[in-house]
C-alpha cells in the first residue's frame, strides 16, 4: 500500500490569529485540505504548548481556544475534511514526548535557533521552564503521533521539523521502522515565510502586539495600515524610497494579485512598476497604503463575515472540537500501540513474552 499523505499543523491559543498565520500557514492548509491530494488533514490548537510559557495565565489560553477555532472555520477549514482538535485532550502526546526525551540531548535542544530567540523574547535566560525548553520534543510527538508526512508552516518552524526528523530517524534506527519522517512545506512566496509586524519588526507575532488580526474590524485594519512602518527616510513624495525592509511592500508581495491593480490602481500595470516608481521618487506612502488597505479589506471581509456566522452557535464549535478530539485520540492511540510494541513495553498484549518467560523459568 502506498504511504498515506497526511497533513498536520497547529497554532498556539495565545491570541486571535493574524495575517502572518494566514500567509505563513493557514491559507495553504485550506488549499491543501481542498486539493484532494491528501488522505487526511489534522489541525490542532496547541494549548499544552501555549501553557509552557503562559503557565501562570491559564485563563488566557482557555479563552483563546475558541478564538482560534473560530479563525480556522472563518478561513475555510472544514471539519468534514479536517480533524480539528485540542492538544491537551490527547494524553498519548505526553506519553510519546516522554519517550522521545530519551532520544534528544540537552545540547541539541540548546542549539535550536528559534527556541534561542524565543527564550530571549520572554526573558527566560536565567530561568527557562523545562517544559518550554523541551517543546520541540513535544512538537515532534504532535507530528509523528498522526504519522504526518507534510507540515505546512512558517519559516520559524524549520528547526522544529528538523528536530522531529532526527527523532524519527533515531527511533526507527534503535527500535525498528515505526515512525514516519515528516517534510516541511514552506510558503512559496518569500514575503510569507516570516511576515513582519506592522511596526517593521522581523515577525508579526501575537506576543509582540504588532498584528493585523483576521477578526479586526474594517476600521481597525485601515488604522493599522495607515500607521504602518515604511521607509523612515522617505519624507517627501518626490524623494526616492526604499522597498527593502518596507513593510507595506512586503505585505503587497504577500497579498497583491494582478487583478487588484485593475480594481484599485489601474494606472499601474504591475507591482514591479509600482515599486519602480516608489524607488524613483514621486509616489507617496499614503497612495501605496490606500492600495494595500483595499487589498486587505477585500481579503479579510469574507473571513470576518464567516466568523460572525460561526459566532452565532458557540456550542456547535465546542461540539465540533470534541468530535475532533475523539478522532484524533483514536489515531494517536494506534500509533502509541506501535511505539510501545517497538520499545518492548507492551507487556500485556504480547503472548510470546509470557510463553518465553514460562520457558525460561521452567528450564531452571
Ligand atoms: P506566539 O507569539 O504565541 O508564539 P505566533 O504569532 O508566533 O504566536 P504560533 O501559534 O507560534 O504564532 O505559530 C503558528 C503558525 O503560524 C506557525 O506555522 C508559524 O510558522 C506561523 N506564523 C506565525 N507567525 C508568522 C509570521 N509572522 N509569518 C509567517 N508565518 C507565521
Ligand atoms: Mg510562535
Automatic annotation (TrEMBL):
<dbReference type="InterPro" id="IPR050203">
    <property type="entry name" value="Trp-tRNA_synthetase"/>
</dbReference>
<keyword id="KW-0067">ATP-binding</keyword>
<dbReference type="InterPro" id="IPR014729">
    <property type="entry name" value="Rossmann-like_a/b/a_fold"/>
</dbReference>
<dbReference type="InterPro" id="IPR002305">
    <property type="entry name" value="aa-tRNA-synth_Ic"/>
</dbReference>
<keyword id="KW-0030">Aminoacyl-tRNA synthetase</keyword>
<dbReference type="GO" id="GO:0005524">
    <property type="term" value="F:ATP binding"/>
</dbReference>
<dbReference type="GO" id="GO:0006436">
    <property type="term" value="P:tryptophanyl-tRNA aminoacylation"/>
</dbReference>
<protein>
    <recommendedName>
        <fullName>Tryptophan--tRNA ligase</fullName>
        <ecNumber>6.1.1.2</ecNumber>
    </recommendedName>
</protein>
<keyword id="KW-0436">Ligase</keyword>
<dbReference type="GO" id="GO:0005829">
    <property type="term" value="C:cytosol"/>
</dbReference>
<keyword id="KW-0648">Protein biosynthesis</keyword>
<dbReference type="InterPro" id="IPR002306">
    <property type="entry name" value="Trp-tRNA-ligase"/>
</dbReference>
<dbReference type="InterPro" id="IPR001412">
    <property type="entry name" value="aa-tRNA-synth_I_CS"/>
</dbReference>
<keyword id="KW-0547">Nucleotide-binding</keyword>
<dbReference type="GO" id="GO:0004830">
    <property type="term" value="F:tryptophan-tRNA ligase activity"/>
</dbReference>
<dbReference type="Pfam" id="PF00579">
    <property type="entry name" value="tRNA-synt_1b"/>
</dbReference>
<comment type="similarity">
    <text>Belongs to the class-I aminoacyl-tRNA synthetase family.</text>
</comment>
Amino acid at each position: 500500500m502506498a504511504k498515506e499523505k497526511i497533513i498536520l499543523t497547529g497554532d498556539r491559543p495565545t491570541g486571535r490569529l493574524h495575517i502572518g498565520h494566514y500567509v505563513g500557514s493557514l491559507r495553504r492548509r485550506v488549499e491543501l485540505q481542498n486539493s484532494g491530494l491528501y488522505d487526511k488533514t489534522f489541525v490542532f490548537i496547541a494549548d499544552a504548548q501555549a501553557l509552557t510559557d503562559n503557565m501562570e495565565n491559564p485563563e488566557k489560553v482557555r479563552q483563546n481556544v475558541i478564538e482560534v477555532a473560530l479563525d480556522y472555520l472563518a478561513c475555510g477549514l472544514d471539519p468534514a475534511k479536517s480533524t480539528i482538535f485540542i492538544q491537551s485532550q490527547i494524553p498519548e502526546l505526553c506519553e510519546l514526548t516522554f519517550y522521545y526525551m530519551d532520544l534528544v540531548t540537552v545540547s541539541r535542544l540548546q542549539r535550536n535557533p528559534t527556541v534561542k530567540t524565543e527564550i530571549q523574547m520572554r526573558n527566560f535566560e536565567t530561568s527557562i521552564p523545562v517544559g518550554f525548553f523541551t517543546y520541540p520534543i513535544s512538537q515532534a510527538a504532535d507530528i509523528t503521533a498522526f504519522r504526518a508526512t507534510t507540515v505546512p508552516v512558517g519559516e520559524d518552524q524549520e528547526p522544529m521539523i528538523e528536530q522531529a526528523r532526527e527523532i524519527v530517524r533515531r527511533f526507527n534506527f534503535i527500535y525498528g521502522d515505526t515512525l514516519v519522517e515528516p517534510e516541511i512545506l514552506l510558503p512559496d512566496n518569500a514575503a510569507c515565510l516570516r511576515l513582519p509586524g506592522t511596526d517593521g519588526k522581523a515577525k508579526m507575532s501575537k506576543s509582540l502586539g504588532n498584528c493585523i488580526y483576521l477578526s479586526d474590524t474594517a476600521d481597525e485594519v485601515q488604522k493599522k495600515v495607515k500607521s504602518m512602518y515604511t521607509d523612515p527616510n522617505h519624507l517627501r513624495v518626490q524623494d526616492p524610497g526604499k522597498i527593502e525592509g518596507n513593510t507595506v511592500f512586503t505585505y503587497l508581495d504577500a497579498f497583491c494579485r494582478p487583478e487588484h491593480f485593475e480594481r484599485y490602481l489601474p494606472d499601474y500595470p504591475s507591482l514591479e512598476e509600482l515599486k519602480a516608481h516608489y524607488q524613483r521618487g514621486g509616489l507617496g506612502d499614503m497612495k501605496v497604503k490606500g492600495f494595500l488597505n483595499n487589498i486587505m479589506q477585500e481579503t479579510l471581509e469574507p473571513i470576518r463575515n464567516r466568523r460572525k456566522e460561526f459566532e452565532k452557535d458557540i456550542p456547535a464549535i465546542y461540539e465540533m472540537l470534541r468530535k475532533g478530539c475523539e478522532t484524533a485520540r483514536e489515531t494517536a492511540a494506534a500509533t502509541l500501540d506501535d511505539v510501545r510494541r517497538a520499545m518492548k513495553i507492551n507487556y500485556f498484549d504480547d503472548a510470546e513474552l509470557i510463553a518465553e518467560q514460562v520457558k525460561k523459568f521452567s528450564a531452571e
